[in-house]
Design a protein that fits this description.
membrane, 5 helices, 150 residues
Length: 150
């Protein structure tokens, strides 16, 4: 009888630990979701986000190009001082050809296929965890609540 009581106590402790572990995982998962969502930071630190957006916007906006239009006398003086440098404008390389478009199309298709595959695998794992949880709740005390990865 003493062994049966110990076994029952052990099962009860294991059940309690599983519930606590599940609650801990849920809490950590919610914290991770919060910390990786930009809306969390906008709600929590609105002034800091506004300041950061201002700095990023200022850094991204190009400064206006200052054009110098010298007169003939200034050009002659610079030429005499050997400080006049005349360089032809370089042509910008054009990378938006057919090959670049095909490469972009292929990369987009591959990334979508990879996301679909990962989503399917995540769904399978979620289904396995839910199945194991149901078995554990139905009285399968010998069955672990969370399947071990292979």
């Amino acid at each position: 009888m003493d062994k049966k009581t110990n076994a029952d106590e052990l099962r009860e402790r294991m059940s309690t630990l599983r519930r606590e572990l599940h609650a801990d995982f849920e809490q950590v998962g919610q914290q991770v979701r919060d910390r990786t969502d930009w809306r969390y930071y906008v709600r929590r630190y609105p002034w800091l986000v506004a300041g950061a957006a201002t700095v990023v916007g200022y850094a991204l906006v190009p400064r206006p190009i200052r054009k110098i239009v010298p007169d003939a006398a200034t050009l002659a003086r610079l030429a005499k001082q050997e400080k006049l440098v005349v360089a032809p404008k370089s042509k910008a390389s054009r990378t938006s050809g057919l090959s670049a478009q095909l490469l972009t199309l292929a990369a987009t298709g591959l990334s979508r296929a990879a996301m679909g595959y990962l989503t399917a695998k995540a769904g399978e794992m979620t289904g396995k965890v839910a199945e194991a949880r149901e078995k554990a709740e139905d009285g399968g005390a010998d069955t672990p609540a969370y399947p071990r990865p292979k």
